[in-house]
Structure prediction request, 427 residues.
Amino acid sequence: MINTSLLLFGIFVILLICNIPIAVSLGIASVVTILVTGLPIEMFPINVYSASSKFALLAIPFFILAGNIMEKAGISEKLITLAKACVGHRKNGVALVCVIVSCFFAAISGSGPATVAALGVILIPSMVKEGYPVSFATALMAAGGAIGVIIPPSVTFIVYGASSGASIAEIFMAGVIPGLMMGAALIGATLFCARKFELKKTEKASGAQRWAAFKDAIWGLLMPVIILGGIYSGIFTPTEAAAVSAVYGLIVGIFVYKKLKIRELGKMIVTSGSQTGVVMYVIIAASLFAWVISVDGIASDIGDWLMNVTHGNLWAFLLITNIILLIAGCVMDATSALYIFIPILLPVATDMGYDTVAFGILMCVNLAIGLVTPPVGVNLFTACSISKLTIKDTFKDVVPIIVSLIVVLLLVTYIPQISLLLPNLLN
Prediction:
């Protein structure tokens, strides 16, 4: 076990230090370990096929396409206009708009970076205009995008469900309350930090303006209702819901908002296919890495070590799990982390009586925080590319935001009933 684990993780770490992409590092480390240790090489194509042929993963390209369609259709602008009409006149109104719209758009895009890219180009300049430092606006927008992987539908939830065997429908429902709690935490952090900012107030919108903004945004607001309502009423599966969302986005973009041209569809399909290819490459490489961990007994040995270290204490195990995942989120993407750590951590958690769905939320909230944590915070990079700042410029402002999200993480971790409330109500 020691030689194999040292070889596998040693090659992986060395490749990361050499700035090799994570997915490539995972794949190379796995193949070299298979060849050196004498594991059956014929399992390589079998694992590639089994990792990529799961029916649940079909939802990924459709949700990615739906998010791209709704972004092109102008739904982000409609949601921002509605939120500004409702709360924009309040103190910290634009920051509240950032968080609220992130929650809405998260339920459409299912992706953190997509949420930041779609909303940041409008909201970051708006917050700066209202008096927020550009570094704080950038940090808040990056954190708002993190909600995109927790409020359903979420590509990260699909990956967890496909690799753990948990019900994707239940995971979707379990993410609603934690996602809203993350939004509330960001609002709290904003109110705390904004005390020292000199902010401008905007004029309060009239009832007529609010109604007009609501009518404009209603088609976008209906999308998560149709998706989640269809899943939980049994009309369609999560995978079928992804296809429905893409078709719905096309209808809204072409015939309702009329901002989407049919000639643009081909380019969007190619873009979505390219984004899906990246995700699937990561899934294949990470699942091969996870197979080596499992088949050579590394996962079970690490699990036994965790049981011994914690003396079977669930609270201690959960604390160690959070520390591991928060560190992992700093250096790798959520998909890779899930495939690597699910076979190690999930069996220990279930043996200790922790619910599989609740553990999925715990893992995903950890990795959502990783999206805004240097040095590999994808959301933070995306937001910084919009504001033209460096990661270093945002560090001071991102710290209190991360602390507020960690508070939510601890609540979700040690009170799993928060995540299980809605799934249990439906069952």
Summary: The mean pLDDT is 84. The chain has 21 helices and no strands. Residues 265-295 form the longest helix (31 residues).
